[in-house]
Amino acid sequence: MAQKAEQVAEIGLLIYPGCQLAAIYGLTDLFRVAAEWTGDNARYIRVSHWEATADDVICIWDSHPGSPHRLSHAIAPPSIIMPERMAPAPAAAAWLRNQHDQGTVLCSVCAGAFVLAETGLIDGRRATTHWAFAEQLAKRFPSVRLAEEHMVLDEGDIVTAGGILAWADLGLTLVERLLGPATMLSTARFLLIDPPRGSQRPFAQFIPRFDHGDDAIRKAQHFIHAHAHEPVSMADLHDVAGMTERTLLRRFKAATHHRPNEYLQLVRIAKARELLERTLLPVDRIAWDVGYSDPAAFRKTFQKLVGIRPAEYRARFGTASVPHVEAG
């Protein structure tokens, strides 16, 4: 006689206006697949879908109906609407707060962090979101301690995930927590996806801000971009901007959110990433071409900003191929 499978948890997936339905159904399938890989000790995760209306949140689907709900986890998925156009979701936020009060672990993926932040429960706490949305989240919810370099950030009762497809990373993280590492790895292999990734930094792009309204600082930025492959000094920058070094430092940080030297390194490393992706130039040559006379200093800076070494980055993201030489 087959052993009856044991329910280990119930995960509620929150459907709010504009959310990414691919994440809802993808997580549903991932947890269903995980149950197939629990071995002789058969276990499963109950999954329910909860839809937020204007003034309420109701269950609209249940993988194992027939018994009262007791959510161990609730997940706010990504949004397919850009954060600046996401409407407030007070009913969803109230529902999440109520679930948290009852002991539910709250999770978010990508822009789902904006819904989670509406609850006030991550004020003063670390959270991650998509690297491109971090500035917007910080403006709207300044009490949240952003840690956008993380792909998945587990704070115990709050778990946040970064990229728009990081629902897979979050799903596998929860499978590991609830069903064990062996089941998580088997699920990842079956679905042909990587185990949970630790960092967004290899994927994040440097996007310089030029629309800040400070013309003098914009001139300094333009100078850095034009001369990043050369030695650039503070004297060069305050001459171009027409201000003292102290004033330059203050206004540059206010306009770009970076100190001038940090900005210079970001510009150089962005160019190095492009060369690693698109060419087969040796790493030492790339270091020299983007402005580093010391390849060791380049490697150290690259790993600090990107999270992996240049050779690893090329192996993961390089698109150039070795030219085929026909036999003569």
Automatic annotation (TrEMBL):
HTH araC/xylS-type domain residues: 218-316
Record flagged with keyword Transcription regulation: yes
SMART domains linked to this entry: HTH_ARAC (SM00342)
Gene3D superfamilies: 3.40.50.880, Homeodomain-like (1.10.10.60)
GO molecular function, one term: DNA-binding transcription factor activity
Keywords of this entry: Transcription, Transcription regulation
Protein name: AraC family transcriptional regulator
Taxonomic lineage: Bacteria, Pseudomonadati, Pseudomonadota, Alphaproteobacteria, Hyphomicrobiales
